Amino acid sequence: MKHIRAPKTSARASDRVAIYPGSFDPLTNGHVDIITRGAAIFDRIIVAILHNREKTALFSVDERVEIARRVFAAERKVVVSSFDGLLVDFARQQGAHVIVRGLRAISDFEYEFQMALMNCRLAPDIETVFMMPAESYTYISSRLIREVFALGGPIAGLVPEVVETRMRSKAGDLQP
Ligand code: PNS
Question: If you take atom 12 of ligand 1, which residue's CA is the nearest one?
Fold first, then answer.
């Protein structure tokens, strides 16, 4: 008898769904590491890109979504979306019971602790889980990548290739 397979992205009520929120401007290899580790633990990990209205953004939210979708095109557990408003509302709407955040250093802790407690107050049914990236990525941040790139420094190995290419083409470094 022939079995009809469910579509790769289909979700069951029993799925352990996590949400990994952030600005991702740009997506770094530290983010990729956390998402990959998350995908090994959860049935689905939703990369949730905040619709912030920062005028200084490098990539538009649509561009960030498109880039992340390309990077994770082969990973069926990873879903990329954007969101507006409260994270916990979006998490509930997506059926996520876990918020994943990366913790790189002690300096991240205070901000992350505040956010986790506030989210817990807003939605006690949603748990925040902290994950540490591989040691080699602990010093990478989107802000530093933007700064190093703007000043002409090399960013290869710190961001996915597609991110570097898109940054270069934005800066006019590449021939079309
Ligand atoms: O990568 P970032 O910029 O540190 O991510 C911050 C983010 C997007 C996780 C946070 O700003 C957020 O969740 N914003 C959505 C609005 C919200 O829910 N605020 C209350 C959080 S305590």
Answer: 87
Decide if 155 is inside a domain: no
Examine residue 171 and state whether it is found in any structural domain, yes or no: no
pTM for the full predicted model: 0.91
pLDDT tens digits for range 30-56 = 999 999 999 999 999 999 999 987 778
What are 60-75's pLDDT values in tens digits? 999 999 999 999 999 9
DSSP element (H, E) containing 35: helix 29-41
* pLDDT, tens only, 105-117: 888 999 999 999 9
pLDDT on residue 11:
66
Whether residue 136 has pLDDT greater than 60:
yes
Total domains in the fold of the chain: 1
Ligand 1, atom 13, lies closest to the CA of: 87
Domain membership of residue 161 (yes or no) is no
Q: Kindly state whether residue 118 falls inside one of the protein's structural domains.
A: yes
* C-beta 118 within 6 A of ligand 1: yes
Please, which residues have CB within 8 angstroms of residue 12's CB and are 6 or more apart in sequence?
43
In the residue annotation, 55 being an active-site residue is answered as yes
CATH classification of the domain holding 52? 3.40.50.620
Which range marks the domain in which residue 116 is found? 17-138
Find the helix or strand (DSSP H, E) in which 110 lies: helix 106-122
CA-wise closest residue to 29 among 113, 167, 127, 139: 139
Residue 50 beta carbon below 6 angstroms from any ligand 1 atom = yes
